[in-house]
Structures are given as C-alpha cells and as structure tokens.
C-alpha cells in the first residue's frame, strides 16, 4: 500500500492558529494543564491527611513512564538516522517495549499483592532508571532494544501497582478523585511527550531523551523511600510456571496484533495467536483451583468487574483507532503539516485531563455505568462529526470535534477506573490494577490493528472508515457500560 502525501498548506492558511510557530505552540496548551494537575494533587493530599511525598512519588513515576512512550516515538527518525538503520527496523525499539510491558503486567501485579505494592513500585523505579541509562548509552539497535526491554519491565512494574497504591493512599470516599488525578497526570504526560522530545532533540542527540529520566527517577525513588507507606500483603506462593504462561499469553497475543498492524505474513500472525491460545489454555488449567490466580479469573466472576473491563478494552480500542487514524487523515486528506496535525490532536487529551475535575468527583456519587455510558455516546457523536468533516475544514471545525471527544472520554475514564478498582476485595487490588493496565494496552493494540486493516483494504478512505468503526465501537462500549446499571449486575460497593 502506497500513500501519497499532498503538499501541506502553510500556517497562514489555517485561521492564524499556528502563527505561534510549530512546536513552540505546544507549551501554551500543556503548561496550564500541568500546573493545574500538580495543584490539584497537592490539594487532595492535604484533604486526605497524608504526606504529599507519598502521592508525588507515585505521580512522578507515572509521568516518566508515560512520557517515555511519546518521547521515544517522536525520536524514532533521529534514532534510525544516527544508528544508521532502516526506519522500519527502528520500530522494534517501540515493539520490544510494548511486548515487554504487556507480558510482564499481570505477573508483576500478582507480585505486588504477595510482596507489597510499595516494593514492586520501588523495584520498578530502579529498573526504569537502569533501563534509561542502558538506552542512553546504547551503541547499536540491538543494544538499544535490550535497554528498552529493561525500561519496559520498569514501566510494567509502575503501571501494574499504581492503581492499587492510589486505592491505599486515598480513603474510599475520595477514591474517585484519586484515580481522577492519576488519569489527569497520564493525559498531560502523554500530551507533553512530543513537546519535551522536540525540545531535547533541538539541543542534544537522541540518547538525552532516555537519560533525562534518570534525575526524575532518582527523585521518585527518594520520595518513595521517605513517604510511601507499606501495603498489606496477600501472602501466598508465586507460581513461576503460571507467570511464564501468562507472559506468553499476552506477549504472543500482542505480537500477533502487532504483526497485523505491520501486515506481516498471515502464517506468522496465526502462529502467534495459536501460541497465545496454548499458553492461555495451560494457564487456565494450572490455576483452575487457585484462590488468587495471576490472570485474575476470580475477579471476572464479579459481573460488574467483567463489564467494566470489557468497557475499558472497547474504549481504549476507540482511542487507539482515533489517535492513529486522525493524524494521518489530517495530513493526507486535508493537507495539514505534521506539526499542525499534532497540534490539532492536542484538544482531545487536554480536554480529557481537565474533564477529570468534573467527572472524578461525580464518580464518588453517581454510578460509573451511567457516566461511562453517556461519555461513550458523546465520543461516538464526536467521532461521527470528525468522519463527516467538510472537504476543507477550518481549524475551529476540527477543534470543537476533538473537544467533544475529550469531554466524552473524560466522563468514561476516571469513573471506569473507580468501578474496576472498587468492585474487588482490597486484597485483590493488585490483580484489578493489572487488569486495568492490560485492558488499556490490549484495547490500544486492537485499535491500531483495525486502522492498519482499514488502510490496507481501502487506502486513504480507510482512515474515514476507521473513524466510523470507532464510532460503532463507542456505541457498543456505551451499551456495555449502561448494562452495569441492571440490578443483577450493579456493584454493591
């Protein structure tokens, strides 16, 4: 499939929005949101009567692990050029990271329950710092891939236990606000990544994008040692064989989805999925009688939790489709430059971050099923509006549609996090947190694969088809969310 890129229009042709000039416009959007997020975190830590060190140590870990994803994506062309490798081969820098994170999430979540979430989080920060140093000192693509794999283990440790730590830090009546702050930090960090990468690459070579993690990781480690409390442990034996099978299940599953996205030989995709099915069957057989399995099958016996996980996968599949299809659509069909398309994508995550101020407090009073259902209907409407953009859309015509999607996703994200975390026993918070992180990665991978298939079949018009598909998935997700309101399913918590 060959996509022809039209000549990009100049900044003066876009209603003056881009007169600020390229990447320099990003901080205008990002910095106010970042200040608001940290102010809110400090306020909530005071209200909950806890030391701010505990919350800040967690949030700094979340920031560096989230930023790292978009930092690396932005730097891939520079990495390929300076290492002298083909740009397509440099994609493995990203793929190795995602495969490692996805494979390690649930086993690390189980280790958090057994040995304490604080220990796993601290170990994750240490691994993240070591991986950052290894990546920054890499001299070849294979050595960089090794460094990224170590980084992936650290990021998986942080992601696997963060929701559980927040559940222990915040009292039950403020859990929605705590998870809302987590969602805000993720949104702002993800949005800030390209800006930070552009700023670093303008003054230094690509290794600096990894080495910049080191002082922030050290700061988080110090705060963790000083202020993060120990958490109760669910003492049991960790099954190494089950952990390996679980890693194989999600590693092979994601490898197949990645192959589908890159249109590799279908036999390799089928082999990956057969291997995933074999690992899954073996894992279910081995953990059939375990009270707290690594795959958390026991939690899926809770209908409210199961529907919340399904809703999460569907919602993040929508996000995966939109965040890949829209930049291509804005450039290939509507003629915006790469920088302009990136700027036009900012309102969605920025609005999502700010919507947490509205949705998170509501989640402590109103059913997540209702909030999530309404939110995903709004996302469906926003995507339908994006799919029907006029032939030459103005900047405001794009922006209000992005804002609409951000509002809808904001009503879904924090309430759904609370639904997943609060519907399980306290001792199984690690398993729930692992499912929360895995559902996000799995959904985004499915969304990316669907965009690739649409583009392969329909070329550029497939981008519009992918957005329509996202709207249809949003309606399905809304139905799944509303079904949590049924009396037989409604959470007792």
Spell out the key features of this protein.
single chain, mainly alpha, Growth Hormone, Chain: A, globular
Total count of helical runs of at least 4 residues:
18
Judged by helices, strands and strand pairing, the structural class is mainly alpha
End-to-end distance: 51 Å
Task: Give the tally of β-strands.
Answer: 0
Strand content: under 5%
Task: State the fourth-level CATH superfamily of the largest domain.
Answer: MFS general substrate transporter like domains
Helix fraction bin = over 70%
Cα shape: globular
Q: What is the radius of gyration?
A: 21 Å
CATH topology of the largest domain: Growth Hormone, Chain: A
Structural domains: how many? 3
**How would a crystallographer describe the biggest sheet?**
none
In CATH's first tier, which class of the largest domain applies?
Answer: Mainly Alpha
**Element order, helices and strands?**
HHHHHHHHHHHHHHHHHH
> Low-confidence segments, ≥5 residues, pLDDT <50?
1-36
Just name the CATH architecture of the largest domain: Up-down Bundle
Q: Mean of the pLDDT scores?
A: 80
Question: Would you write up a description of this structure?
Answer:
- By secondary structure, the protein is mainly alpha-helical.
- It folds into three domains: 21-239, MFS general substrate transporter like domains (Growth Hormone, Chain: A, Up-down Bundle), CATH 1.20.1250.20; 245-289; 298-493, Growth Hormone, Chain: A.
- Helix content is 76%, strand content 0%.
- It is built from 18 helices and no strands.
- The chain has helices at residues 26-47, 52-83, 87-90, 92-115, 117-136, 141-169, 175-203, 208-211, 213-227, 240-261, 266-286, 303-332, 338-345, 347-363, 368-387, 395-422, 429-458, 461-482.
- The longest helix has 32 residues, at 52-83.
- The radius of gyration is 21 Å and the shape is globular.
- Mean pLDDT is 80; it is low at 1-36.
